[in-house]
Amino acid sequence: HLEHFPQLIQLSISHNHLVDIRLLNRLRSIETLNLSHNLIDSIDSLKPLQNLVMLNISNNNISSIAIL
């Protein structure tokens, strides 16, 4: 239901055992995103988030941050 929050600029979803974050690419206005302490192994789906200025991906299973 992220489409109901098109103007969301800050989101913290740390410590949630998240694996798949593909739906987050709908948050086109997001500026601050905390994804720390999850089970994420890829952040490729975040590439469309052009307004993103702060991203916390610490303590995940990410092997590449090439899209940044």
Any overview of this molecule?
This protein is mostly beta strands. The protein has one domain (2-56). 0% of the residues lie in helices and 13% in strands. It is built from no helices and 3 strands. It has strands at 10-12, 32-34, 54-56. Strands 1-2-3 form a 3-stranded parallel sheet, with no helix packed on it. The protein is globular.
Q: What is the element string, with H for helices and E for strands? A: EEE
Approximately how much beta-strand content do the residues carry?
5-15%
Mean pLDDT: 94
Give the distance, in angstroms, between the N- and C-terminal Cα atoms. Answer: 26 Å
Number of domains: 1
Structural class: mainly beta
- What is the radius of gyration? 11 Å
Describe how the helices and strands are arranged.
Blueprint: E1 10-12, E2 32-34, E3 54-56
Q: Can you give keywords for this protein?
A:
68 residues; mainly beta; 0% helix
Summarize the structure.
Pfam families: LRR_1, LRR_4. InterPro entries: Leu-rich_rpt, Leu-rich_rpt_4, LRR_dom_sf, SDS22/Internalin_LRR. The chain is an all-beta fold and 68 residues long.
